Please model this.
Amino acid sequence: MHILCVQGIRAGVGASTVVANLARILRELNQDVLVFDLNPSNLLRLHFNMDWQNSSGWALNICEQKSWHDAGFQCEQGVHFLPFGQINYKNHQVLMSNYISENWLSDTLNSLDLLDESWIILNVPSELNALNIQALNLSDIILRIFEPSVACLSQLINSMQSSYIHNDNSLSNKSYYLMNKLMPSSEIDYEMILIFNKVLSNKTIPVNIHFDENIKEAFAHQTTVTLHAPNSASAKEFRTIAIWLISYFKRRSKNYVSE
Amino acid sequence: MSANNPFYVKNKLSLDVVFLSIVFQSIIVEDWLVFKKHLFNDRSQFYGTLIGLIIFVFLLFFCHEPQRIKAAQTLKKSFPHINWARPTFADAIRFVIQAMWLGTIQTKNAYNTLFFYQKLLYRLKGIVSLPFNGAIKAIGMVLSKFERSSKYYHEEFEPYVYVLFLLLLGFICFTVPFNIPAQIIFVILAGVVSIIARAIVGHLSKLILITLALAVLTRYLWWRCTSTLNIDSHIDVFLGVILICAEIYTWFILLLSYFQIAWPLQRKTVPLPDDESLWPSVDIFIPTYNEKLDIVKITTLAALSIDWPEDKLNIFILDDGKRSSFQEFAEQVNVGYITRNNNFHGKAGNINHALMITKSDYVTILECDHIPVRSFLQLTMGCFLEDEQLALIQTSHHLYSPDPFERNISDFKKTLNEDNWFNGAVQEGSDLEHVSLFRGSGAILKRESLLEVGGIAVETVNEDEHTALRLHRNGYTSAYINVIQAARLTTATLAEHIGQLILRACGMAQIFRIDNPLLGKGLSIGQRLYYVNAMAHFLGGIPRLIFLLAPLGFLFFHSYLIHAPTVEILLYAIPAFVYSSIANSYQCLHGKQRYSFWNEIYQIVLAWYITLPTAVTLISPKGSVNVLATESLIKPGFLNPPFSRPYLFLVVLNLLAIAAAAYRFLFGSTDENTMVLIYFAWTTYNLLVLGGAINMMQEKKQVRMQHRIEVNTEVMLKKASGHLICAILEDYSGSGLGLRIDMQASTIEKNEKIQVLISRGEREFSFPARVTNVNKGFFEALFENLTLQQQLDYIQCTYSRSDAWVTWNQYSTHDNALSNIKTIIAFCFHGYIGLARSLPRFITKFFLLVGTSTVFIKTLLPKNINDNSIQYENV
Amino acid sequence: MKYKKNDLDGPCKNIGIEAGNYIEIKENEAVIKIKKKWPLVDQIISSGIRNFVNQHNKTT
Model:
């Protein structure tokens, strides 16, 4: 199993969009993909053409004492996804304290009995809680999404200095950074690219995702840009990232063999 | 089974099937195929094809309109030289010939046979080279044993022993007389060895070919000197000796150039220390006189982008034109601006004046159109830090616009220019002796040593080489780095180009008279030889002119220049000619760097114009060199009729020689006939080369003001609506871009405002532009109001990317002798057509008649159809 | 989109030095200018990078 964690450095940088697009492209490349939404904002499902009124999801099912397995969906292109479900604050508290045990996520994923070659993409929110840390620890690679803003820079440096990800060597080794919503015509953006590249040096993915109207329009159509405008530059960027990910796992398995 | 699948093998099928498949359903075609197979066996496939075609034409009358249109399109593609709108009788002939061609030669069977022969040849080559490879291994083993046993051998003597041995061996090789069968065997053996040698990869093959060429040539010369002079007649001896001298001179030039090219030193540069404070300070001089600001601007911005500590990099525009716009620009971008109150000694004086004012450790000289890439200094300066004696580094001179010769050939990128050859082979070869030429631009000099020799030399018109010579005399060394770190424009017209070459040649002659490199101290033998070669090269036009005139001696005056039986002449002269051109042209010698026959034509063009002034300067060096060179430049219409007058004269003489040959063949004594034929062939060759020279001199105008540089990189466009699309950047210039987009994916309109996003390294830049010209998927965009920072960024993304010129050579094709000959003949022929147009009316009419009839006959010939769309999938 | 965005690989390889030895001075200078321009960026970077580097030294 290839477990991929996608986490925004802060909320609103477009992590869900990246998850949805990557899932669709990996599926296009004949991979088995399961998307697991861990974000209570429950937005990811909208990229997969799920009705807005439909509030079901794994968290809601658990809170309502139903099997979370029933929350699984499959989109027309064949991507399996588990929406979070629309739950309120109180239910969320209950969920976190009562149901999410220490190895909940790994048990859950193991119980799915997936093929060796299939992908699990975890959509992890930027804030920290027990579930998110489980996800990060479990993953093979963490994609951290940021946009070239000073706020993101501040958050990034903070997380490097103090918080979980950089105190733990195993986590920082497998985290890679992906720039989103890039607008080189903006003066500060184009200068921040340089700053971010200096700070992150070799930990960035060699592709940036630009700010593109197509992405916004695709979401309004309840789909991903790879389907909505397959010839657009952003679709191409997502495709490149997907190929980078595949080659990353190929390289990794090769290294295992050689070791 | 989709047609788009590239892995699906398509077979070429006969023409009828192609036609039928386009107009009708595949079922009918298959039926026809089966039917055809039954009816006609393999041998009479041709008739089957013909009948199929007849059926096709017949069926056309009964099919629907769209099918007919489709069929017409295919017809047009398969018969590209037929005018369907208004067919003539000749078109009918063309149709029949082309149909027969397509039906017989250009079918699957013919293709397969050809392929079979290729395979066979390949196998044969393997078999022939097998024992050779074994022999190499055996020799290696024997040698290694021998080495071990000779403990008491003194190493110091080794080179002398080798040289002595080689000289002895060479003397025997070159002088042993062969009778005719022996010479035949020698030629064949040499041929076999050279074929094998070409199969070997690496330096060895080059050396083998050089050795072979030298052996054959030297034997030829020895034979010429000892047994082909007719001593009985005075005039024969006189003319014969002139011809032999010319031949010896060319042999000498060839020898020198082989010597120089044999072991190129591919210099590796030295990395700089990590500590930036140890890096030396550098001044960059950009001398200009009357060039446009646009040109100087690009160079200056590129110089500003060079990766070197800001406080250690000082850029100066040396403006001899004293223009205020330049001063303003210099202040804007914060670079130095230097003028002086006189203009003594031109560029050399300009630089010397600036040397007095500035004070960095090193000085880089960039001609105002010479654009450096950003790694220019970091990849070169390391050498200076390592080698104290190093005073000059010259980087490769890359020309990014076609030079006048190439433009007149209009075959740019297929044939490489003389400059590329110079860069690769000659510079690296001479670097072995530490005499890399200083070429006046794109070079870095050590200020201390430059001042020691009195700055840039002003005594000759060739200040660059004279300065380098002085540096060498004072014990300094120079280096050449063959990675393209800067690029420049070529001269605009052929006249200017030749003018420059004349200046260089005259300058070299002056150097020889004023400061002869052969005399005086401080130079090594290799260095001296190198200068001799450079000088000899410029005088190489004299023997060429003699060769052009030589056959006249026999055909007009009946003088035996080469007094030998015809068979012997053929056996000696042809191999000599072939081997020298093989050694010159094939990958062995200059790699992919020189195109032999084009070079021959190029040399012929130069011969007249360079030789005369050079010879004059050599006799009186203080004379009016400048006047000579510049006068020829300024003369109006320098190029057209008066320019090629000497060549017209040569053409007329050779044409007369042809007539004389015909006369001698028909009415002379019969035992002379073979000899006449040889001279006839020689004259024809001369005419061919002259035709090429004349065609080359017919200038074609350059239309664009700013030359566009072809690239192929991916960029992105942001449309005014905010949508992003991918595009391919196909060319760029200082003012705009040529882009291509996928028409199916997106559209673009004229006058649309867009942002072009170009990335370099990890950074990305956006440039506002406006679409001007839309032609299907390709469009041009002009920049709009770039800020200074944006202009700087733009230069960094394009001209001064460090890999901007690295991939340049990948477009060049190998020197394919056969196809080259075909194009050359066509090219030379066009020279005569152009010439015929300017002749008196009645002659023109005659020539035009000959020309048009040839062209007409050519249109009758069948054409190869390489269009993939006319292929039928074999189900 | 190309993976190899580094324009230095080709020339450096040709000339026999590693691209890693090349110092992108213009970029470094640009960083200094950017820091001067945006005070907040300067604050974040100058404190952050130092700590980041220290931590890396500790862990590796």
Notes: The two ends of chain B are 10 Å apart (CA to CA). Chain B has a mean pLDDT of 76. The CA atoms of residues 30 and 858 of chain B lie 36 Å apart.
